[in-house]
Backbone:
């Protein structure tokens, strides 16, 4: 049973949907950010502040590579994971890549109160989110085998849609 890797910009629902999808498909669910926090004993904002984004990306790549050889997981990836070709290659070897999308307005509504978004903490504005999303869009689209818009849909609806799309691919 291949893994399902959820990718997309922060706030598109990857963590929430992965939990629901894991339950629905009877798979183990892994949030890469939480996995990195557990392994390092530090929060993502702390890692970004003290070690920088490059260090965090190396940790992320290491963990993604581990799931290349495992099966039966729903893996919620960080928003920047698909920016590195080696991560996309590992995800493809290990399973199916599902892109979750949302409008910049929806993302802003979902993340505006969060203090755990290092790339937004100093620039929590809808326009900045839109610009970042547009810059990442080509990477996300190249990586994705399935794309699902999350605006105005419940986690249960999204899990059902993803499960159906994944089953058609396998």
Residues:
């Amino acid at each position: 049973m291949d893994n399902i890797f959820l990718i997309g910009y922060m706030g598109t629902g990857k963590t929430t949907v992965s939990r629901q999808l894991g339950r629905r498909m009877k798979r183990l669910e892994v949030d890469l950010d939480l996995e990195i926090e557990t392994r390092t004993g530090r929060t993502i904002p702390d890692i970004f502040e003290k070690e920088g984004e490059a260090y965090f990306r190396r940790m992320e790549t290491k963990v993604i590579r581990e799931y290349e050889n495992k099966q039966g997981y729903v893996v919620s990836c960080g928003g920047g994971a698909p920016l590195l070709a080696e991560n996309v290659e590992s995800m493809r070897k290990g399973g199916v890549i599902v892109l979750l999308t949302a409008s910049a307005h929806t993302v802003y509504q979902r993340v505006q109160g969060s203090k755990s978004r290092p790339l937004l903490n100093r620039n929590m504005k809808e326009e900045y989110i839109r610009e970042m999303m547009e810059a990442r869009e080509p990477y996300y689209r190249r990586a994705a085998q399935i794309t699902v818009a999350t605006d105005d849909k419940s986690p249960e609806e999204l899990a059902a849609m993803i499960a159906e799309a994944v089953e058609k691919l396998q």
